[in-house]
Structure formats: structure tokens, C-alpha cells
Amino acid sequence: MIYESVSVEEPIKRGDIFVNIPKPRIDSFDSMYSINAHDGTTNKHSWEECSGSSVLLLPVEAVSGIVISQNCDASRDKDISLCQIRQWSEVIKEPFPVTLKKAVSIIKEVDRKRPKIFYLPKSTLFGFSEQKLVDFQTIFSLPRNQLLNHRRLRVGKLNDYASEHFREKISYFFYRHAYDEWYCLNKEELEEYKKDCPDVKGFAWQIDTQIQ
Fold first, then answer.
1. Does residue 128 sit in helix, strand or coil?
2. What does the DSSP 8-state code read for residue 48?
3. In 3-state terms, the chain is what percent helix, strand and coil (to 5)?
4. What are 107-119's pLDDT values in tens digits?
5. Which residue, of 21, 38, 41, 89, is most buried by count of CB atoms within 10 Å of its CB?
6. Beta strands in the chain (DSSP E)
């Protein structure tokens, strides 16, 4: 198993897994509710109408998260960054495969070809009754002192080997170079490519036959 137990006294490090932690959610910039400091009443505003010092009511959801802050930052910064851990079907949009062959195939695909997610196998010992995925696109921060005070919500951590893979995938996600893989196709090849990706727009040298 790629998880390890962690004692309550241990410092918070990258790869630590927390469950049932609060994540603020903003549903609409047009429906912000402020609290009147004098009588406790609430008033609805748009974000533009709120002052910078307004006390706002925001919905909060309980989520699982994994620490992505570097260990040195997690030991001294005011806030600690985490990525949300999501249900497999919520991200992949289909159930985890039943057959062993398909399961192994898609786990390899997630590891090699999907830079936005990181696979976490199920483990009832560490609170995962089913397969999970770290969503690198869903990042949130919590005060370091509050996480320290509530380290009982930390159910475990990635072992050293898994932590190295986790670090590399985080690095690849944030530093990968976005490029248009169809830029080198000729006009005919581009038309074939667009059968699977119809929203793709060709470059001038792929459209203008004079410069092909």
C-alpha cells in the first residue's frame, strides 16, 4: 500500500492526507451576503458592492485534501496549500473498471497521460472505501495554525516512493508547456484531425495553399 500512518505530533508535510476539512465555495459573484456588525442581519450584494472589509457569509463544504506545499513552506508559511481529493467517477465520469485488466489499463493511463490528476488506490484503513483522484486543478488554502490544531483529521500520508511520484507529477502539471499538437499538419491532415477535435482552428500555413 502506498500510504503510511502518521502520528498527531508529526509536522505537516507534502503528501499528508486530510479528511473532512473545510473548503469555502463561491457560487456566484452576484449573490454575496454580508453580516451587519451591529444587529447581525444579512444583506445581499454583488461582489462589486462589497467593501474590502466586509464580513461575508460563504458556503463551506467538507472535503478530503492532500498537502501540496513544500515541506519548508508547510513548516512556516501562514497558509498551507492543498488539492482536493475527488471521487473517481466525479472526475473520470464513469465507474472504476470491474475487471482487473481494464483497471490496470486505466490506472496506467492516469499515471502516464493525465497530468491533471493523481491516482489514489482504495484503502479502508486510511478512509478510502473506493479509488480516488487528486485534482490538481482544485487548489485551496487553509491557515497553517488551524491545520496544526486539527491534525487529528490527518488520516495518513504517502509513503516515500509514492511521494516522489506525487512531487514529479505536481511539477509536471505546473511547469508543462502548453502547445498545439496539430501545428505541423498539412491541410489534409488537419481535416482528418478535426474529425475528433472539431473546435480546432488551423494556422495560416494550414489554410492558405499559397504558403504550404
1. strand
2. G
3. 30, 30, 40
4. 999 998 899 999 9
5. 21
6. 3-4, 16-24, 32-35, 42-45, 56-57, 60-67, 79-87, 117-120, 132-143, 154-158
Residue 20: strand, helix, or coil: strand
**pLDDT at residue 210 in the model:** 47
User: What's the mean pLDDT when you consider all of the chain?
Assistant: 90
- Name the more confident of 177 and 128: 128
The residue written with cell numbers 492558405 in the block is 208
Per-residue confidence at 55, pLDDT binned at 50, 70, 90? Answer: confident
Please give the DSSP secondary-structure letter assigned to residue 168: H
At CA 125, angle to CA 119 and CA 128, rounded to 5? Answer: 40
* Contact between 24 and 60 (Cβ < 8 Å): yes
**What is the domain partition of the chain in residue ranges?**
3-178, 182-212
In this structure, CATH architecture of domain 3-178: Roll (2.30)
